[in-house]
Design brief:
Chain lengths: 503, 147
């Protein structure tokens, strides 16, 4: 173990990694701060550009984008009452009023401190708990993997937005897309239409670029409303967070970070749910003089610590079980795979030094995020003024180049453009895009392990009920679906209540 | 001109149509397994998805037509026509891509700026410079052969 950590530190402590983590954080904060852009879009767009990089700097760059975007989301939430990311929705309840009271810098500083503490707690949880879980998971066989994939697919229940039925249809599309190419078990070709370039299947990243980037850009073509980014004001100098503020909010931050890390580790949840839960908890424990909803500093600390507390923790199920808990994890799964790391129970035993380097790097990234936030905040606020029309054209161009770079094939560009158009049409009928990714990632795992399990049992389906871990996952799947729907309803009612209060 | 449609009804109809198309395609696109498969063949998952689509499509239609649980949406044809035209541009780009990355991508970047109503010449210059920089980065630094 000590040798692995030493090797990991050797992989990690390089100038190259330091630079790329900072680039990732910088990019993430900007993408998080501009309404309409988000961390996942940044990761998706930049992923093809990491192919030529080493595994550790590439993964650290992408993870840093994820962390940075969560903090970046709070900038627009506080300054213009528009959350840059879903996870920052709870931050604006008190962040914007505090800004209106003439203390934008204090609000942003509080968000930064809380984000850093939340991120640190989360990254430490990832560092210490992920290897322990993987030790248990390494005993899994094909039936357990099948049950695990079904457990992961149950996340569709929470990421389907208004309609689970539409989520299932989207998930089905992802599963079907993953079947394109040569079937690894039978060797038969599926949906290749005689085109040899489809024998290797459809690249997930090309679909991701289409669904998340190109569809969004087509949507921007239609945007006629004035874009709110231009309303961003510079943070005024002079109002700063005080030591008393930090002392007062520290217990709230630690508690909220714990809530965030716990919620984040459950697949299908993520920062938005965690931040609302933490906000409610802070409000429940409020003293009489703490006026939540009117610029209370704890009202910023709680959601920010929680949503950043959820970030690294969402990687726990991804790295240990191979289950992407949310869309960013699904994209990062693609990144791990493309860099030759097979996420899941065997990850720590097969790629220990690399994985530990990334995990320790996640902890260091939080500290660097604090430094960037502290010294570059004014710059971030200014950069978010970039005109949307220039940004749209630039992103389209970068996506097309990136798609070609996936496997140096124009087929990936065609797939990206096709799925951009498909996803745009799907948006018009409220089909959620996230289940497509989940289906593409988990469909093949479920299929191949189902077939292997039935070979093991001689065709008996009872194998899934007689193995304890398998049965546990099946029960967990049912429980998770019920809990996710309840949590979803709670989050919606909290958002609705907030909207009503605002009116 | 605006078109009103029911979100669930439209989604249900599309899902059923896709399901039926797949039902027709599967036997033509996927061969039969002759090995021992215990009931799970290369066609099983695609068929399962097809059935899922048809069942979900029917459920959405029932929700919309019988239970009246639906949302009426509006399509602004002027706006959507613009999106459709842009998709046409993407198709042109796909055709041109093979000929020259540099020219086709510069064309796409410039047309995108036109579509978003940009009149600043500086932005066109920035996008063209970006395309050139990306081309040089990939072809000269990363040694990726671009079309």
């Amino acid at each position: 173990m000590g040798e692995v950590i030493l090797a990991a530190l050797g992989n990690l402590l390089t100038i190259e990694n330091f630079i790329f983590v900072n680039i990732g954080l910088f990019t993430g904060i900007i993408f998080g701060a501009i309404p309409g852009l988000n961390g996942n879009l940044a990761i998706t767009v930049l992923l093809p550009f990491t192919f030529q990089m080493g595994t550790v700097p590439a993964l650290l760059l992408l993870a840093a984008i994820f962390f940075g975007s969560n903090f970046g989301g709070s900038i627009s939430a506080i300054l213009i009452n528009t959350p840059g990311t879903n996870a920052a929705a709870a931050t604006l309840i008190d962040g914007y009023p505090l800004c209106q009271h003439g203390q934008p810098r204090r609000a942003l500083d509080m968000a930064l401190v809380a984000s850093t503490i939340g991120g640190l707690v989360s990254a430490l949880c990832l560092l210490f708990f992920a290897p322990q879980i993987s030790k248990v998971a390494i005993t899994f066989g094909a039936p357990e993997y099948f049950a695990l994939a079904i457990f992961g697919l149950s996340v569709i229940a929470s990421v389907s937005g208004k309609s689970i039925i539409k989520g299932l249809i989207s998930g089905g599309l992802g599963i079907l897309l993953a079947t394109v190419g040569i079937d690894s078990v039978s060797g038969l070709s599926r949906f290749t239409f005689g085109n040899f370039r489809l024998y290797n299947g459809v690249k997930m990243l090309a679909v991701l670029l289409g669904v998340y980037a190109i569809a969004q850009m087509i949507g921007r073509i239609n945007q006629t409303e004035p874009v709110t980014v231009s309303e961003l004001k510079d943070a005024e100098a002079g109002d700063h967070i005080t030591a008393a503020d930090v002392k007062k909010t520290l217990p709230t931050m630690l508690k909220s970070a714990g809530i965030g890390a716990f919620i984040g580790a459950i697949p299908g949840t993520g920062g938005a749910i965690a931040s609302f839960l933490a906000y409610n908890e802070a409000k429940r424990c409020a003293k009489p003089d703490e006026k939540f909803g009117q610029g209370e500093i704890k009202g910023i600390a709680a959601p920010e610590a929680a949503n950043n507390g959820a970030t690294a923790a969402t990687l726990i199920p991804l790295l240990t079980l191979g289950i992407p808990g949310d869309v960013v994890s699904a994209t990062l799964l693609g990144a791990f795979t493309m860099h030759g790391l097979v996420v899941g129970p065997k990850l720590f035993s097969t790629s220990g030094p690399t994985v530990y380097a990334v995990l320790i790097g996640c902890v260091i990234a939080q500290v660097l995020m604090f430094a960037q936030g502290k010294y570059l905040l004014k710059l971030f606020v200014k950069i978010t003024h970039i005109p949307q029309d220039l940004l749209t054209a630039a992103l389209v161009v970068i996506c097309c180049t990136g798609a070609f770079a996936i496997s140096r094939s124009e087929m990936d560009v065609y797939v990206m453009l096709l799925f951009g158009a498909v996803a745009y049409v799907m948006q018009k009928m409220d089909f959620p895009p996230v289940p497509i990714v989940l289906g593409m990632v988990l469909g093949p795992t479920a299929e191949s392990n189902l077939r292997n399990s039935l070979v093991m049992s001689g065709g008996s389906w009872s194998i899934f009920l007689t193995r304890p871990i398998c049965l546990a996952f099946i029960i967990l799947t049912v429980v998770l679906v019920i809990l996710l729907k309840r949590g979803d309803a709670k989050q919606r009612s909290a958002t609705k209540q907030f909207m009503n209060d605002e009116e | 001109m605006k078109i009103r449609y029911r979100s669930n009804a439209a989604a249900g109809a599309v899902s059923i149509v896709l399901g039926v198309i797949c039902l027709i395609l599967i036997p033509r696109q996927i061969g039969e397994d002759y090995a021992v498969t215990y009931g799970i063949t290369s066609r099983t998952v695609p068929y399962a998805v097809t059935v899922l689509w048809i069942v979900c499509g029917l459920a959405l239609l029932v929700q919309s037509l019988l239970l009246k649980k639906d949302e009426v949406k509006e399509l602004d044809l002027k706006k959507e026509g613009k999106a459709l035209a842009y998709m046409g541009i993407l198709l042109v780009y796909a055709i041109l891509f093979n000929k020259s990355f540099l020219l086709s991508t510069a064309f796409l970047g410039a047309v995108t700026l036109v579509f978003v109503g940009c009149r600043k010449k500086l932005f066109y210059a920035i996008v063209l410079a970006l395309v050139t920089a990306l081309y040089l980065l990939f072809s000269q630094v990363l040694h990726i052969q671009m079309p």
